[in-house]
Amino acid sequence: MLPPFLRLAAAALLSLAVAGCTSTASPRNGVMANAPGTASDGFVQAAAYAPTDASRLAKPYFISFRARNAESYGHTFVVFGQFDAKGRVPYDSQGVLIPSMTEVAGLHPASTSVVPYMVGHILPVPSETGASDGDTEKAYLLAEWTIPLTPAQYNEIVPYIHNLQARSPVWNAVTYNCSAFVSDIARHMGYKTPSPLHLPKEYITQLREMNT
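Above: the chain sequence. Below: its structure as tokens.
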């Protein structure tokens, strides 16, 4: 755990919104910007329609923009994959995402040590872009915005996410953090995005409110 004074300083820094940094929708992917979404401050809500067979859904896939709890100020990331047979984000009986039906993408320091995390508030540090501890567990969710996708929309956004993961080698708390990574995905889909310097819960809440 970070020393108290560093945690307070970092949280204060990341909570500052940058005036004029709100992005506009991308015309080339405007079709996604009109997709309906479901939202909650904890648990995933089922889509308005919930047929018994996911293959019968007009939009059987999803992307979920999420914030979770952490020892510091939290983490922003995305989950994407296929709805279950009831049209919901697939979890097992323990509240853990089913790995065969979902993927997680998020930017974070490539270490479980606090040292790169602390250094990353000053200098860029090597990053990882997959799941971090707690990303797959429903119990840690603070906020989310889940958007159903058609097969065509899903097949367009997944390669973009994979490419973004491959070209995001560093993490920095100010210049390119987890919310900035998520912002790139949201903008590619045609959504407006808030400043990535908001704390994760506030970032996801504002992202949802700006686009619904």
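The helical segments are 4-14, 30-33, 114-119, 151-166, 178-188, 200-211.
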